[in-house]
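Retro notes
What went well: the complex prediction finally ran end to end.
Inputs used:
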Amino acid sequence: MSRPSPKTEILQGLKEIFGPNRVNDSLVRTLVYAQDISPISLLRARGGEKPVLPDFIVWPETVEEVSRLMRLAGQRKIPVTPYGGGSSMSGASKPIEGGIICDMKRMKRVLRLDEDSLIVSAQTGLLGVHLEHHLQRKGYTLGHFPLSHHSSTLGGMLAGRSAGVASTGYGRFEDMVVSLQAVLPDGSIVKTRTTPRSATGPNLNRLFAGSQGTLAIITRLKLRIKTLPPTLSFDSYTYRSFERGVRAARTLLQSGAHPAALRLSDPKETSQTLAGLEKGIKGHLLILIFEGHPGRVTRMMEGAGEICRDTGGKPRGEEPAAHWHQRRFAEGYRKSPVLCRPGTVMDSILVGAPWSRVMAVYEEMRNILSKRARVSATLSHAGMNGATITFAVTCETKVGSEVDLLQALWQDARHAAETAGGTFAPQRGAGVREVRDPAKEWGAAFAWYREIKEGLDPFQIMNPGKIGRGEGIGAGTR
Amino acid sequence: MFKKYHREIEFCTFCPKMCKFACPVGNATGDETLTPWGRQTLLHLVGQGHIEFDREVASVMYRCAACLLCRQYCDHLIEVPPVMVAAREKAVAEGVAPVEVGEFRGRWSRHNNPFGDDLRTRVKTLVPETYFAKEAQVLFFAGCRQIYHHPSVVKDTFKVFEAMGIDYVACHEGEAMCCGAPLRELGLRDEYEKNASALAERLGGYKVIISGSPACVYELKVMYRQMDLKITPKVYHTTEFLWPMVKEGNFVVRKPFPRKIMYHDPCTLGRYLGVYDAPRSLLAHVLREEMGEFSRNRAESECCGGYGGLTITDEKLASHIAKDRLGEFLESDAATLVTACPACADQFQTADKKIEVMDLISLLARCL
């Protein structure tokens, strides 16, 4: 009798762990899981390009199953790609070397709400929007609203170091993590301690923040929450130039004003933001949202208003800000009508910079990108020390050349950002696209990551090809 | 493939999954393939020739509860269920539909309804004789599920009619006791059209039709008219029909309903027909305590899994969806779950036998 193929043996092993119904290796499933929603993947799909398929998809329901999966994958040296909402814009969950996709969405329970400590514990396959619904029913909020709010999971948010539209007020996702549980590539289950803060050593939660599934599968998170703010107030101002708006935003944030959200858009983006609003407001629009107890909100709004007017802002009232807030996830809807048109390219390129480099990044990026595309810009995710600018690009080209054009745009963008002192992927995992050369991006620190990676994942089975391309093992069943 | 639905398939395939969180099937299974994005992406891949339209693709198309929540969260108002119905028709035509669809067809052929039973005889035992074979302009269409699974609700409906002096209604009886909604949902187009034509002929003379089943109301009011069948546009759910008369003081509440209730908006009554206020107004009229609401209610109401043929092709999945929806009710202080759809009532009662599930009309009858 002939020996079963490696793939058959692995399938058998997976069925022993997950049973017959939570393992799938069909063409139908693997094709769907090989797609993602990054514009480059979508353009490739539109062009008829077939993606690299995973060999298997599994749906664990317990941490023990994840542990057994990792032990099996380690023994067989087969890649494992953790999969949450599949909402990465940069290919982070694409199984570019095949292997096993571990879809975490069956691990979606809210485990405990500690109302005294304001900590919620949940499994990482839970969608962020479902956690927020759960919390708001009980009078709380996580305050994390990334553009992928409706489709991303908690695990993906930490693995991608997600930042939401209210991050100015609530912080980034990694700031919300109190403790975590994760399964390492050798199958061991590790937990960090649930404590407000501990200085007994390095903060290991941070090790997994931004790891993009290359170090472990994060299975449980304890997160800081807040009580739902009793008041939400909106304000907006227009400026004669982006630079004046940037100055206002910086002055305001460095003065100690603490808006939940702050957003500055250039005229083109302003017209998109305010589409549907009757008032014909044009120009560089600064939107401010304040939350909290009424007295405090009033004081903050007054202080911020003074700064905005002193820096040349024309008051535009609450309506533009309220309109944006109501439609703050609408950007996602803009994509499909454009991307499904052959010969059209659309993407958004995010660059972070310290305040001292923000205008240089804005100018350099706009100059370069506008040679090939229509560009609009938005400043957001701002703090005391800097901000992110999102450049939305749209352009037309010959049918069949869309991928080439998009790649050329990204090459230009990388060059411009580097020249101006900005950094890529400030709000989301870099996946396989945004940072081609981490050694260049991180400098010598990339060697530390590699040593950690080799220590935890000696066979390089975890999400190969991400954070440093070409390091994957290329093994598995191929 | 599916030229008619090119826009729907393309828009969903190129969308960053904006409605995914709302899909009850995707949430219950955790399977990316079983989300609006996944299903439409699959059809896109079929269109590109990457994959055959085979039995597995077909089985994905049958795993949609047609709840229309995806449209609720779509700026482009894309409706996925009609695309799924087109795909199911193709699956039937190509012989790759799930085996349950063939079994259903067999049951249907016995008595022209999903239960394979003589519902014409059953309905006669539920409704006072005076409501049959009478000259009337208003017809009550009980619907097959109501007759078969909820005979007490049919009885209660006439109890309410009698108490309110509504004696000008005739009760439907005939060969076709089912509107055919499951046939359409399962892609059995030929059988659906045949049944619809026969039923429309029987219903043609009435000026107003009422039914306690929102799925029936939707078929008669919307789908039949799309097929140019001659049927009155005045088709109402019982709650819509009753509320104006109750508001006028035609319903005397002798015993206000004593327990705290929570109301579930059926997908078909809500998102498909836009009826949200009539059931709430009726409840407010007869309840002693304030009504409880799900946090996701009205147009955002989550699905019970009872529509779209899902109970026929994947009963376990449909029940899982009902359990997901019940979670909030079980956490609440409400004692009774009230709805206005027999399919929803079935789903919830099957998912949890210990809870009290009641049709709104039966609740009214208790207050007489």
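What we learned: Chain A touches chain B at residues 26-29, 31-33, 35, 37, 42, 45-46, 48, 50, 59, 83, 85-87, 89, 103-106, 108, 125, 127, 129-130, 133, 136-137, 147-148, 150-151, 329-330, 332-333, 335-337, 339-340 (CB under 8 Å).
What to try next: split runs per interface for comparison.
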